[in-house]
Amino acid sequence: MGRVDDAMALDSDPDVIMTSFGDMMRVPGSQGSFFDAMVQLSSGRSEVENQYSRVVPWDGNVVALKAIAQTMELRPYFEWRGLGFISHSALRVRSGRRHRTGEPT
Asked: What is the DSSP secondary structure assignment for residue 100, as one 8-state letter?
């Protein structure tokens, strides 16, 4: 648990009046932020909201995706702990760059 989670746990106590000077209002905890909770409370709602789309565009992070495409490739097979072998389900460093990883080329 982080400090925002600790503060939100304290704030859930009806005998506690939480005061913030804006520093915690938008910092997300594992359960959301104070601001999100206050918006829901003031509108009579209590629901889970997906915040991912607020910060990541539909096409993803284009710069990061380009870097991944240049440096990584799909593994033909990979053994996942608890799942076994699943083909084409993991990435590895492209063969021309593996000399830095210790992985066989």
From this structure: G
- Take residue 30 and report the two structure tokens written for it: 């594992």
Token readout for 58 is 């539909």
Tell me phi and psi for residue 79, to 5 degrees. -100, 115
The C-alpha R_g of the chain, in whole angstroms, comes to 22
Distance CA 28, CA 54 (A): 13
Per the DSSP assignment, residues forming a β-bridge with 84 are 80
pLDDT tens-digit map of 36-59: 777 888 888 877 766 666 677 788
Q: What are the phi and psi torsion angles at 67 (to 5°)?
A: -65, -40
Residue 8 CB neighbours (<10 A): 20
pTM score, whole prediction = 0.42
Contacts of 97 (CB under 8 A, 6+ apart): 71
Give strand pairing partners of 85.
79
